[in-house]
Amino acid sequence: MTDAREIYSAINEIAPFASAESWDNVGILVDCGNKTDRVLLALDATAEVVEEAIRLACGIIVTHHPVIFSPLKRLSPDMPSFKAVQNGISIISAHTNFDIAPLGVNTNLADIVGLKNYRLRAGGFGCIGELHAENGTALADAVASKFGLETIVFADAGREINTVAVFSGSGADLENLAAEGCDAVVTGDLKHHDALDALQLGLTVVAAGHYETEAPAMQLLCGYLESRIPTAEFVVSETSHSPIGHIRVK
User: Fold this and answer.
1) pTM: predicted TM-score of the whole model, two decimal places
2) Distances (CA, A) of 71 to 23, 25, 97, 228
3) Residue 250's pLDDT is what?
4) Secondary structure of 27-79 as H, E, C letters
5) Are residues 92 and 109 in the same domain?
6) What is the pLDDT of residues 142-152, one digit of tens each?
7) Percent of the chain beyond pLDDT 90?
8) Residue 247, in any domain of the structure
9) pLDDT tens digits, residue range 14-45?
10) How far is CA 7 from CA 3, 12, 118, 191, 225, in A?
11) Do the Cβ atoms of 186 and 149 come closer than 8 Å?
12) Residues in Cβ contact with 12 at an 8 Å cutoff, skipping those fewer than 6 apart
């Protein structure tokens, strides 16, 4: 058996909650004061994930994205946090503190992409390492293969690539990454105007998806918690999925 405070303490050892950004909302966000022998991990505490926790008799959910982020103006039965409380399920969220951790989202992404000799950037947001590709198209193909994607979004600056940054999710600071000598960035999201800015900076950007670049780290966290708290079973959600779909059109 375990409880939210024991899990909080275990996560705090590798990703201190005090290191989260000031705008973030992390920690025990739904506290039912319960003990459980099964814990569910997911990127988001969606309605489907809460239902999965109920079905699997998981008394605690650990997420990356905060289940409560903006100020709540109302509560209703269709809200995941409301349903969690109704069923006595606590929720812990480790967001930007887990992004920047040495054993965290960005280092996990660097390993998946195949960066060599990489380092965490100052502040921990993103990693920079070595990865060769002839151009942006070749890099995009390689990243798509790593994630098993049939489609991928990218902006090709048309130059040889040797130094690559990875930046999970969204909000990569392109100008600073270019100044740090990066030829390309692998990230989650890419907006139109950011793509224009990147090309002006001579920076190739490959966007593999917000969910896709972050979700694998939940398996990493699951393995850590299993080793740290052997008195409970930790499972990664099977219902968690990206809210964004892709379709090939003829």
Assistant:
1) 0.95
2) 12, 10, 20, 33
3) 65
4) EEEECCCCEECEEEEECCCCHHHHHHHHHCCCCEEEECCCCCCCCCCCCCCCC
5) no
6) 999 999 999 99
7) 91
8) no
9) 999 999 999 999 999 999 999 999 999 999 99
10) 7, 8, 29, 36, 8
11) no
12) none
Domain interval for residue 163 = 105-213
Sheet with 184-187, side-by-side order of all strands = 116-120, 127-133, 161-167, 184-187, 204-207, 153-155
Write out pLDDT tens, residues 200-247.
999 999 999 999 999 999 999 999 999 999 999 999 999 999 999 877
How many structural domains compose the chain? 2
| Chosen domain end from 98, 117, 142 | 98
Distance of CA 152 to the CA centre of its chain: 18
Q: What is the CATH number of the domain that holds 19?
A: 3.40.1390.30
What's at 138, amino acid-wise? Answer: A
Residues 6+ apart with CB under 8 A from 56: 38, 40, 235
Dig out the tokens for 187 from the structure: 């990230």
Reduced to 3 states, what is the DSSP secondary structure of residue 163? strand
> Residues 55-97: pLDDT tens digits?
999 999 999 999 999 888 888 999 999 999 999 999 999 999 9
